Amino acid sequence: MLKSNGERLWDSLMQMAKVGATENGGNCRLALSAEDRAGRELFVSWCRELGMSIKVDRIGNLFAQREGRNGALPPVVMGSHLDTQPKGGRFDGIYGVLAGLEVVRSLRDQGIETEKPIEIAVWTNEEGARFTPAMLGSAVFTQVLPLEKALAIKDADGISMKEALEQSGYAGEEPLARAFDAYFEAHIEQGPILEDNGLPVGVVTGGQAICWLDVEVQGVPAHAGTTPMPLRKDALFGVGEMIAALEQLARDFAPKGLVTVGQLNIARSSRNTIPGRVAFTLDLRHHLDEEIAAMEASARDLIVTIATKRGLAVSVERHWLSPATPFDDACIAAVRNAVETLGYPHQDIVSGAGHDAIHLARHCPTTMVFIPCVGGLSHNEAEDALPDDVSKGCDVLLNAVLSRANRI
Amino acid sequence: MLKSNGERLWDSLMQMAKVGATENGGNCRLALSAEDRAGRELFVSWCRELGMSIKVDRIGNLFAQREGRNGALPPVVMGSHLDTQPKGGRFDGIYGVLAGLEVVRSLRDQGIETEKPIEIAVWTNEEGARFTPAMLGSAVFTQVLPLEKALAIKDADGISMKEALEQSGYAGEEPLARAFDAYFEAHIEQGPILEDNGLPVGVVTGGQAICWLDVEVQGVPAHAGTTPMPLRKDALFGVGEMIAALEQLARDFAPKGLVTVGQLNIARSSRNTIPGRVAFTLDLRHHLDEEIAAMEASARDLIVTIATKRGLAVSVERHWLSPATPFDDACIAAVRNAVETLGYPHQDIVSGAGHDAIHLARHCPTTMVFIPCVGGLSHNEAEDALPDDVSKGCDVLLNAVLSRANRI
User: Fold this and answer.
1) Which domain holds residue A17?
2) CA A347 – CA B136 distance, rounded (Å)
3) What is the pLDDT of residues B278-316, one digit of tens each?
4) Can you tell me the distance from the alpha carbon of B344 to that of B55, in angstroms, rounded to the nearest whole number?
5) Per-residue pLDDT reduced to its tens digit, A304-360
6) Count of the separate structural domains present in chain A
7) Cβ B192–A228 below 8 Å, yes or no?
């Protein structure tokens, strides 16, 4: 099996981390900012050294292509993103782009040509920190989000995507939605599972389903000092019971069901007023669509039951439902074959976070390769990964992509 | 037994309600505002018609005195406040002042003199809506709050009490903390108990103890999509269990124990982030000091136990403790005797809200007379009371004050 040059990859990661470096060791390269442009230019300079050609599409997605023996075939694409959170880390996204670069460098080192072209994609505004939604570039490329709508989206300063693309020089002409043979995205896990299990590589079988609900519970606000307990309609006591029941719901759907109440707001709250209206969000996740549906039904049922029992009015609205995204069997097999042949410890894993690969999976055969991140920490300046894991993940990517690129 | 003129009292209440009237039928007379001054002037004009003398102390508390046969004796004082919440009602405070006025009018009508002088007090800034804290004027009069400190307190526009008093013409010279024979405050209940029990009068035996705690629970913030349930330290799930246990605590101390979680904040909350830090307030009330101490101990114990079990860090700080305020036995007996002799249905009740009488109880023999308010509603433009209850409460005040004023 081929090996990549882990030290070179690490060096490139550390060089990229100097672009938009933050005080506490993290990175700030907001999408299409001067820092993001500088990061892209550094990447492009490395690609040009390899003789790769550069293309940019109309939403600023950047593609670096290495020719294949058969230029008529669609490319095998690797990639991720170079933009970061305002206080982001050095690996989230960047790893997938620079591992792709290291794959091409390794192929060149070893004089290996491929049947199909190989590309590295840098997707625009994956983080959603400057322009909402996240994964914007890949959504436009895969036509999940119409181009014109995306171009009109404005950042907090009122600057539109269109203006930001023109200002940064990344308003290109490459057509959207052109054919890919396959898409492979290497990424840090952004969770603690691989580290907890002591494994350097995760074979990603898909993205989990996500159901977001908005719950609002209405009781009667009243004076905390003058209202006897039996005469109260305390919305927060109702919500307390709901939260306890929702924690049990997660146990009922263990180990794959995830339940999070991330936001909770008491309307016009004061220390000595009985809460009259409480709103909270509910984030449900599972890797199976039928299970997410069952979780949603159970959550709705328990919320309404508790509210009704207490004489509280309640509304439960579905804010968003994203179905499970199974990745492509052949791509997963290519990754599994690579990691097994390399002899690296690994496990199957489902992606808990959103990634450009989730959009790409609707466009072409897709999968991902995960490596651990220290403490499961991400979207944080302290985000970190171990050089050995960085290296092993790239070896897996190299061999999986090579096999795909030569498969006729 | 004497009766007051309920119709006249109601008319005065409705005339006062025209001063600072709000669109939705409520009142806005913020302390020492032009509206508050106009309300005071209307009251003073009524008092002058009765030949009463007017005095103002250095924090703007206003006293209207009717002479007694023995001018050397300290006065029996009735009163409350004329200031309101920004969207306040027509009865909170005003009823206590104008019921006092009706008592004097009734005594005059019936040619009754008293041994001791009788006064009506209008306390400054009871609501705390313009200047914090609430019950400011009575706190200064009873020397709970030093005058100089109070004069320096500023409103939201940066205007100090001192400036507001000078601008309104209510910076007087009457000494603070002068002797009172007794203090009687009539007030709407601001809770639902009397209405729920169908009773026009409450014999108020004291003010309950209040314990305010600040709780902060610290877990680990993490990604809602990538963190398996067993690896989470979800601060909000811990708080959910605490809220459920605190609701049970109220049952353990039923019927007098009151428990309210009025405010809750998730630090840096987002829909798909596991809450890392949650702060909430806890309001505990009971009419007995030993029971409030037991409630606080139980609350602390259950909060720490739940946090510890879950591996969450927790802090519990006491924000404020106000001991129970037993009212004066002789004053309570005077009210009870009056209501029983009048034959009005009544019950003993503990004041759940703060009142000027709570401060006065530390200065002189004190009690209160409650009447129901519709739906228990207060601090609301829709605040309402029934004319028959308004009248009966005033009858009770009249006879209680008369007996006290003639008791040598």
Assistant:
1) 6-207+324-406
2) 67
3) 999 999 999 999 999 999 999 999 999 999 999 999 999
4) 35
5) 999 999 999 999 999 999 999 999 999 999 999 999 999 999 999 999 999 999 999
6) 2
7) yes
Q: Which of A226, A317, A379 to mutate to test the interface with B (most CBs of B within 10 A)?
A: A226
The amino acid at B118: I
Tell me if B166 is assigned to some domain: yes
Q: Is A321 exposed, middle or buried (0-12, 13-18, 19+ CB in 10 A)?
A: middle
Same structural domain, B166 and B271 = no
The DSSP line for B175-224 is PTT---SEEEEEEE-SSSHHHHHT-SEEEEEEE-EEEEEEEEEE-B-EET
Residue of A nearest to B287 (CA): A225
CA pair distance A273, A223, nearest whole angstrom: 5
Best B193, B196, B226 residue to mutate vs chain A (most A CBs within 10 Å)? B226
A399 closest CA partner among A340, A311, A350, A353:
A340
CA B11 to CA B21: how far, in whole Å? Answer: 15
What is the 8-class DSSP label of residue A118?
E
Each residue of B129-145: pLDDT tens digit?
A: 999 999 999 999 999 99
Q: What is the ipTM of this complex?
A: 0.88
Pairwise CA distance, residues B317 & B303, whole Å? 12
Residue of A246, A266, A281 with shortest CB distance to B264: A266
Last residue of a domain, one of B322, B351, B379: B322
Place of tokens 């004069």: B151
Question: Cβ A225–B354 below 8 Å, yes or no?
Answer: yes
**Over the range A286-313, which residues count as b (16 or more CB within 10 Å of their CB) and which as e?**
bbbeebbbbbbebbbebbbebbeebebe
Calpha distance A208→A276 (Å, rounded): 35
Q: How far is B209 from chain A (nearest CA, A)?
A: 10
Residue A285 to residue B353, Cβ atoms within 8 A? no
